[in-house]
Amino acid sequence: MGGALRRGTLVMAAAVVAALAFACGGDDDPEPTPTPTVVAGTPDPSRPTPAPPIQALVSIEAKDRAFEPTSILAPVGIVVRLTLANLDDTPHTLTVYADEDFLEPLPNGDTGEVGEGAIAKLDLTFEEGEYYYRCEIHPDDMQGQIVAND
Ligand SMILES: [Cu+2]
Questions:
Q1: How far apart are the CA of 139 and the centre of ligand 1, in A?
Q2: Which of 65, 85, 140, 146 is an S-S bond match for 72, by CB 3.0 to 4.6 Å?
């Protein structure tokens, strides 16, 4: 009887040691965080990248040489489609910048000239912060601000 009890205790002790060793082994070598790869340049037409889904829509009008609205709240981290409807009889652009001095245009943030009666779109993903847009043809008259947050 006594011998069987000792054997059981020894087996228990061995199991505890194994569990501790396993726990310690799990602590080192954390998985390295993969660095996001940014692919620049012209997309390869033979391997089209599926566009991310549009998840928010913001409509902007250009009328009487003014934007409406001139202040936009945008969500962070999803694709926001900005449309510019030009209701004037003169061309406008919708051009988005990361700074209020209009020195850092966003990639893919410029519609180019949008003619009379035409509609153009920009698909942008914002990080938290403030962005600024203007018409490149009437930069003093036509400006607006985008505030992006969660
Ligand atoms: Cu304009």
A1: 7
A2: 146
Mean pLDDT, all residues of the chain: 82
Cα–Cα distance measured from residue 96 to residue 37, given in angstroms and rounded to the nearest whole number: 24
Does position 24 have pLDDT exceeding 60, yes or no? Answer: no
Q: Is 47 exposed, middle or buried (0-12, 13-18, 19+ CB in 10 A)?
A: exposed
**What's the gap in Å between 91 CA and the centre of ligand 1?**
6
- Structurally, the chain folds into a number of domains equal to 1
- Which two three-digit tokens encode residue 67? 């934007």
Question: What CATH number did the domain enclosing 60 receive?
Answer: 2.60.40.420
The Cα 20–Cα 81 span in angstroms is 54
Residue 39 lies in a domain: no
Q: Is residue 7 assigned to a domain? A: no
For the cut 90, the answer to whether the pLDDT of residue 35 exceeds it is no
Distance 6 CA to ligand 1 centre (A): 90
- Tokens for 111, please give them: 């519609």
Residue 135 lies in a domain: yes
* Sign of the Cα pseudo-torsion (95, 57, 83, 81, in order): positive
Whether 116 is covered by a domain: the verdict is yes
Residue 51 C-alpha to ligand 1 middle, in angstroms?
29
